Structure formats: structure tokens, C-alpha cells
Amino acid sequence: MSKTSIATRLLPVAIVAAVLGASLLVRPVTINSNNAALCGYVGYGYGVQPAVDTVTPNTGPTSGGTVVTLTGCGFIGTTAVNFGATPATSFTVNSDTKITATSPAHIPGTVDVTVTTPGGTSPAQPGDQFTYSSSSTGPCASVTMSAAPASPSRSGTQIVLTAVASGCANARYEFWARWTGTTTWVLLQAYSVNNQYHWNSNGAAPGTENFGVWAKDTSSSAAYDALYSIPYTVTSPCDSANITALPTSVIQASGTHVTI
Known about the structure:
Layout (H helix, E strand, L loop, with lengths): L2 H24 L24 E6 L2 E3 L5 E7 L6 E4 L2 E2 L2 E6 L2 E5 L6 E9 L2 E2 L7 E5 L8 E7 L4 E2 L3 E9 L4 E8 L7 E7 L3 E5 L6 E11 L8 E10 L25
Parallel strand pairs: 2-10, 12-18
Antiparallel strand pairs: 1-3, 3-7, 4-5, 4-8, 6-7, 8-9, 8-10, 11-13, 13-16, 14-15, 14-17, 17-18
């Protein structure tokens, strides 16, 4: 066989190899944690059927509102992003390989996140899954605090402050105080799951103390999600004192017994 005929036979092979190589450069292969990437395979990518390889983060609360990043291919021209059968609250096509979407409300469970374009809908695979968890919550929406016994009380009374946070399943509490005559808040009890603080007012001067509480979910990175404060009035241990004597008068040096 001549060199010319060999070159003629190899030329189509070289052209195919070059085209395939170029297509992989246009649609790079990405492998997710499940080793189930579809992008880079024939039939998925720009101008054809889209594919979702990863969803990050892949868990969120049933109330929705989790912003997730979808990576894959063939996203240009996306007309819909669905979490199971429920449309995403919103989505933005960042590029042919990236979409940012907000999860809708959904019952607890795991769903496939799919992308629809004129080329079709992405097939379900392990990498596109998102799990709705009823135990996953966002930051604490609010917190309240009460005191027992209620204000006011006499100095020396044992007072229990109780805080209750809402909107978060894993609340932690931090208690603060601003004492009478001061302008600075001081820490009484650092963040913990304990929602009570016990204060013994023994020795407290009459006046109004201020107690505060910070609350945040264990998943929160903020200093606090919500805060609340209450004033508490402390009165004197005794309002007044009286002294009497019986009898009320005696003759000096008479030896009369007097009861005070």
C-alpha cells in the first residue's frame, strides 16, 4: 500500500478525533461525587439535551428559599427548572454550564432537579438530587423573654428568666444584663441550648435592671438572629420598720419589765 493511500485512509480518522477533542473542550467533562456525570457524552450539551451533574447545596428546609447552584451542560435557552414536579421559585442561567435557582416549598423527601430547554429535559441521575428536610431551618425569626416572679420584687428574690425563640428548630440562647446606673451590657450566660437564666437579686440596690437575650440557630453564623430585652424593678428588702414598747412609759429605776 502506498504512502498516499495510507494518508488518505488516516485523514478521516484524524478529522473525527479533532472534532471530538474540540467538542470536549467546548463541553468539559465534570464528575460529581456519585461519578455519574453526563456532560461530555454525545447527546448532552449545547444545542441538545441538557444534563444536571451537581446541585450545591443539596439539602434545604421544606419552606423553600434555598439558593442552589446547578452545574452541568446545555443550559443556554433554559425555559424551566423544576424541583421534582414543582417549579423553582426563580432561576438565573449564568452560563451554558451553570444555573442559580431558588428552591420552592415542598414536602420532606428527595427530588430530582431538572432543567428544560428546547432540546429537552435533563434525565434524572443521583447527582441532580435535592433533599427537603423538615429538621432543616433557617435563622430564628424572633425571641421573647419572661421573668418569674414578675416585676417588681424585693431584693434577695430568686428570679428565673425564660426565653423562647421561634422559626428555628435548634435555638441557642445568650443572656445579658445592664445594671442600674450603667450604660454597658454585660454577659451573664454564653450561648447554649439552655433557655433559662437564674438570677439571685440578693444585695441588689433598689432600681430597674435590664435583661436581654440573644437567640440564633445552631446553623447561623451571625452574632444573633433575634434579640429581646425587658426591664425588671427591684425594691428594698423591707419597705419600713416599726418599733413599739409596752408599757409605753415607766418610772425610772422602778424595775418594771418592758417589751420592745
